[in-house]
Amino acid sequence: MDVFDFASLPFVNGAVKYVEGLDFKLDELFSERAFEQVRERGKGRVLSAIGEGLTKEVFSDRVSAEKELLSYPVARILVSCINDSYLIRRYALAEAKSAYEKVKGLTDDGLKELALDFNIEPEINERQVIIHFTDYISYANVIHEPKWKLINRNMEHGRVTLTKEDFSRIMEEAVRKRIESSLPLVVPPEICASLENYLVEIRNNLVARKSEFSIEEFKEIMPDCFPPCMVHALSNAQAGVNLPHSMRFALTSFLLNIGMNTEGIMELFKVSPDFDEERTRYQVMHIHGATGTTYTSPSCATMTTYGNCFGKDVLCGRISHPLNYYRKKAWILKKGKPVGN
Ligand code: SF4
């Protein structure tokens, strides 16, 4: 790999070594005018991660590739100064998604070099990539679609065969994990202070992003009446935690049952870092009855069986279904009675 590859894959060990070999001191990166564009691009990386995702940059020469490469450590420092777990997850995912596009276009040698950087030893032929099943599980276990379950894969002698596209998706997950687990960095307070102008803009965007979800979507319904399990699931979805399939189904069907429309639910899941619009729309439409069956959200007994009953309160003791909780609480609030009565 060369500097042009490093500019798109700045998290590989070779890129780190390349930066170490450049002729400047780290603190100059955060203070010197010569690095103003690099700092702006670093801020841009973080803002894009909060927004619609990283844009693909084109590097016409070595200097612009080096600037792009240097903007990565700047972005990591900015994220670390803010030290917000939602931002860290979102940033790591945005970098990984951007890397995925680059990985898909790598030559076989480039793909192998990248995999080895993550201690994955692949066999690569014209159309397929074969990896050890433990590597597969390490990264595929957070992808919820059925095809990613190990039993649905072609495995021989402990090795799993994948298309190059699916292997690129595995590498995306490896990148996400590497970046997320390495943040936040320990940054001296004086460096964060010198970056305050950039941090203000990022914080403002972050606050705006976090507040996009919520009240607006619930205009027609009553969020105060949600049962604890759904409040828990909503706050996880909002924070970018991947919900287990059973909880995703429970939350989506609950929201549809109480009258939220499809677009409202799409908006709600959009804040999740692993949001895939097409897949989410398909799932929501499916639960909504696009295939002829309208699903009702699961009962408390089913929720408990799947480990999705969180934070039971007094009212939970008087109902057996999250929808009944919602109706009862709405009735109680309307009558102005205390919830415990
Ligand atoms: S008892 Fe039912 S409504 Fe209450 S938190 Fe558990 S699943 Fe939700």
Task: Describe the protein's topology.
Elements: H1 3-8, H2 13-20, H3 26-31, H4 36-50, H5 62-82, H6 85-104, H7 108-117, E1 123-124, E2 128-132, H8 133-140, E3 154-156, E4 159-163, H9 164-181, H10 189-194, H11 196-212, H12 228-238, H13 245-257, H14 262-270, H15 277-288, H16 300-305, H17 322-335
Antiparallel strand pairs: 1-2, 2-4, 3-4
The structure holds iron/sulfur cluster (SF4).
Task: Kindly describe this structure.
- The protein is mainly alpha-helical.
- It has three domains: 1-83 and 187-211, no CATH class; 96-183, no CATH class; 213-335, no CATH class.
- Helices cover 59% and strands 4% of the residues.
- It is built from 17 helices and four strands.
- A four-stranded antiparallel sheet has the order 1-2-4-3.
- β1 (123-124) and β2 form a beta hairpin.
- α4 packs across α5 (62-82) and α6 (85-104) runs antiparallel to α9 (164-181).
- The N and C termini lie far apart (68 Å).
- Mean pLDDT is 87; it is low at 213-218.
- Iron/sulfur cluster (SF4) is lined by residues 227-229, 300, 303, 309, 311-312, 316, 322, 325.
